[in-house]
Specification:
Blueprint: H1 4-12, H2 14-35, H3 45-48, H4 52-66, H5 75-88, H6 94-110, H7 116-146, E1 152-162, E2 167-174, E3 188-193, E4 202-207, E5 217-222, H8 234-242, E6 248-252, E7 268-273, H9 277-288, E8 297-303, H10 312-319, E9 325-331, E10 346-347, H11 352-358, E11 365-370, H12 372-384, E12 392-396
Parallel strand pairs: 7-8, 7-11, 8-9, 9-10, 11-12
Antiparallel strand pairs: 1-2, 1-6, 2-5, 3-4, 3-6
Helix pairs in contact: 1-7, 2-4, 2-6, 5-7, 6-7
Length: 407
Amino acid sequence: MLTDSQREIIRATVPALRQHGERITELFYGDLFAAHPALLNVFNPANQRPGGQARSLAASILAYAANIDHLDRLGGMVERIAHKHGSLEVRPEHYPIVGRHLLGAIRQVLGAAATDAVLDAWGAAYGMLADIMIGREAQLYAQGSAAGWDGYKTCVVVRKQAESASMVSLTLAAVDGTPPPAFRPGQYVGVKLRVPGQSIDHVRQYSLSNAPGGRFYRISVRRERAQGMARDGLVSNFIHDGIREGDTLAIHAPTGDFVLDETSPRPVVLLSAGSGITPMISMLEHLAGPAGGTRPVRFLHATVARAQHAFGDHVRSLARQRSGIEAAIFYETVTPDDVPGVHHDEPGRLGDGALAARLPAEPCDFYICGPLGFMTAVEGILDRLDIPAERRHSEVFVPDPSFLVAA
C-alpha cells in the first residue's frame, strides 16, 4: 500500500511526467530491449520506430499518476491493457524486469529530482499497479484454460482468401481438432510466428472477422506499407506473401474488451474505416444471424477506394439477411466504374449529415474502429450530435495514447 507521503510525491511528479514522459518511456524501451532482447517477442518493434508505443505508455503512466487517489477511474485502461497482455502471455515474472528499467529511466531523465524518496514512491506505485494487472491477467488465463485453450495452440490455415487489394483472410482450425473457444464479437487473437530470417518469434493481434459459434476462427490481415519513418509491416507482409493453405500458426485464445454489448436493447451503429472493418464484420455477422436478435443495425464503412474495399459483397449479403439492417459505404475516391448502391453509396468521407440521416430515431449504441484520424473525426461528429459518451465504444488500430489527463 502507498503511504500518504508517497501519494503526495506521485501527485507532485505529474508536471515532470507531462514534460518528460515520452523521453522516459523511449529510454525505458531502449534499455529494456538491450538488456532483455527476448522481450522483443512481446513488444511490436514496428510500434517503437514512430514513437507510438512510447507515447501510449507515457500517457498511461501520466493517467495513473494523476489518478493515484481515484484508481477506479482507470478501470477501462487497466482492462484494455490486461487483455493485450493476455494475448501476449505476459506473466508475473515480467513485471519486476519492467519495473526495474522503468525506475532506471525515471532516474536518468529526472536526474537530481529523482531522489530516493521519489524512486521509492514510484516503486511502490508500480508494485501496486502490477498486482492489479497480474490479478486480472490471471483471470483471463484461467478463462482460456477452462475453455481448453491454454496459451498458444497450433492451428492450420484451412483457407486463404483475398478480401481486397490489401487484405487477406485466413480461416483457422486447431490441429488437434479442439473446437475454438467461444468469443465475443469484436475480440482478437494473438498470432505468433517466426518470419524467415528473423531470430525471434513475433506476436501480433488480429481481430476475429467471423461470428462466434462456428467451427473455425477467421482473421483478416491488411498488408502494412511503409509510411513516414515506419517500415513495411514485417508480419503482415509475410502473412500475405509467405503463408499458404496447410501452413500452421500459433494462435492465442481470444481476448479484447472492445466487444458488442448484447445486454443492451438499443439499435446498433457500426462505424469503421480501413482495416477497422474486421471486428465490425464479426459484430455484423452475429447481429444478422439467429443469435443476434432483432435490433436495428446501421453499418457505415469508409475506405479510400474500391480496390481497398474489403467484404463489400459480404456486407450487402448480410444486410439482406434480415430486416432492420442497413449498410452504407463511403469511397473517398470514386471512379466511373464504381456503381452507387452496388460498390459504394456515397462519395467522399463520412460527415455529420450523412451519419445523422441514417440513424434510427431512438437512442443508439455506437461502435467505432479504424485509424486514429478517422476515430478523431467520428468522435467530433458524435460530439456535435450530442451522443453521450456512455453509448460510444471504440478501438483504434494504433498504439493507444487516449488515456490522457487534462493539462
